[in-house]
Amino acid sequence: MIRIVTRTRLAAMQHDAEGARERAREVQGAADRAYAGHLRTAYDLTADAEASERAAEADRADAEIVREILERTETQLANARATVTAQAAQIDALSDDLDAFAGTVVLLHYGKLHSVHPDRQAAERHAASFGVGPGGWSPVADRPVEESAWLISPLSKWAVADGGDAA
Question: Measured at the alpha carbon of residue 47, what is the angle toward residues 43 and 53, in degrees to the nearest 5?
Answer without folding.
Answer: 145
